[in-house]
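Bench notes, bay 3.
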Amino acid sequence: MKLFCIFAPVTQHHSFMTQIIERGSKEDGTVNLYARLYKRPSINTTIALGISLSRQDWQFIDNVLRSAEQAQKMGTAVVLRDTLAQKLWEVKTALDALIETNNVTNDTAKFVANGILKADIYKEVERQNAARQEQKEQEQRTTLMQWIDEFIRQCETGERLKRKSTRNITEGTIKSYRGTKAQLESYQENRHKIIDFDDVTLDFYEDWRRFFLAKKDKKGNPRPYSPNTIGRHVKNLKIFLYAAKDMKLTTNTEFESSRFSVDSYDVENVYLTDDRVQQMYETDFEDSNTIERLIRLAPDDEERGIMRDQVTRRTPKVLNEAKDIFTVGCLTGQRVSDYKRINEEMYRKLSDGNEYIYLQQEKTDKWIYIPLDPRVRAILQKYGGKLPHIYDQDLNERIKVIGRFLGWRENAGITELHGMMEVPTQKKFYECIKTHTARRTFATNAYKRNISLSSIMVITGHSSEKMLRKYLKLDSEEKAMLAAAEFAKAKEVKLKMAE
């Protein structure tokens, strides 16, 4: 409030007749001010002053007015430093004078009070009330980081389900959300600023990408994130923001711009040929003779020493479990979250007399039928109808060891994106094997056997041929041979039509 000093004239003490009072708190904690006029035996009325204040502000002004009354009774100067308190004191003094005339009505009392308070006082009070309300809303408002915490909590508890589904969001997705939150926190710390809903602009998007590209490892060496990793975090942030918009937590729409895009890069991942899938299936790592034979085939003593150390640390049993689970993935074409849980209870026999695996995919909720490969049946039977449990990270590590033992040491011909530059690597084939390689292996080998993309999609569950084609990892020779086969087939059809 605006402060200044008013020195009221010293007056002789007279009996108290007008009192400024408050009545009833509202739900938002404010009170309404009234003037009570009293003089025995004929005057006892109350008029509304049209002013609402917070209880805290009223308590301050009430104390000021009481102090002024005491000063007046003592015949000393009344000093008022608050604009509204001074005006209310003028109202009280004017109404006291009106009471002394014994000619008081509600209308005359309101006329006198309004003439003193005037519109500028009412506007100032309204402005102060609006400012307090805005501050209160700001204090109660959910921030972006608070919303992300709440969003993740809802995912963890099952309150928030998959979009257009009744199934819970997977732990892998929740882990990805946590990672994006951590990257936002790191960005805020690096840039020395807090990011809220309205700060998520196109300028922020560009700066966030620069932040990812400037990443360094623990030794301080440049370690820029790949476009796919950056794209994943951008995608997650947009998921948070769309959900916040649905909850009316933000009116910002800049993140919906086509320029606020989720970039991706077609990573040159490897796949296993049918022969290598069979080689993995047939290798028994719990057979000591097999282990020794594979170690002897290593190119040098250093490599043999590494292999002996790896088999000691991981044991033949866990290597066998990993290669069996991964083989099931190669023969079914599913994501790791799905192929790890395949079991005998999923078997279904259809009217064509063949057996299938009937499975609901976790990511898409699609129910699909997968032709039951005899090798999958044999692996499940080996473990009593259910695959052994293994964490994704452990599976990733063990299948690389398996590839190394099986002699897949050739250069994989992989390029990586460092910042915005493609750089060839010297990675060996076995180093590039991941849990997702199984899905690529199935799709690529099926396509090489001239199975149509539409038929492969029925099993893999891909939503479009464009998405499926990303999984087809063929070298130039394989592409040429497949193209030749398709041309030959088309030529044969034309010859038959000509006949």
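Next record in the batch:
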Amino acid sequence: MAEKRQHRRFKKRYTVRFGTDDLSKSGFTGDISKGGAFIHTTQLIPLDARIHLQIQVDPKNFVLFEGIVQRHRRVPPELRHVEPGGFGVRFLYPGEVVADIVNKDTA
């Protein structure tokens, strides 16, 4: 099967806080790229939902993103120690966020 991803993925584990309205949910990255990440968590967000993410890159620094949930990986509880579940998120580019702000103000 041909690789469809535009950006190279890196297996990095960072702590992540996320949510649609706040940062009340948590997980960690399984892999991350310029375009998005896979978040290991049992707290799935609906597909196509827009979310806020805070990725802790070291004890003192974090990065904030907005993204769109693109896919889910559901894993039965008895298999989570072997294969963690979670969701894939596409990071929004700054232009996408600004376009949404401008469109809300003109609507």
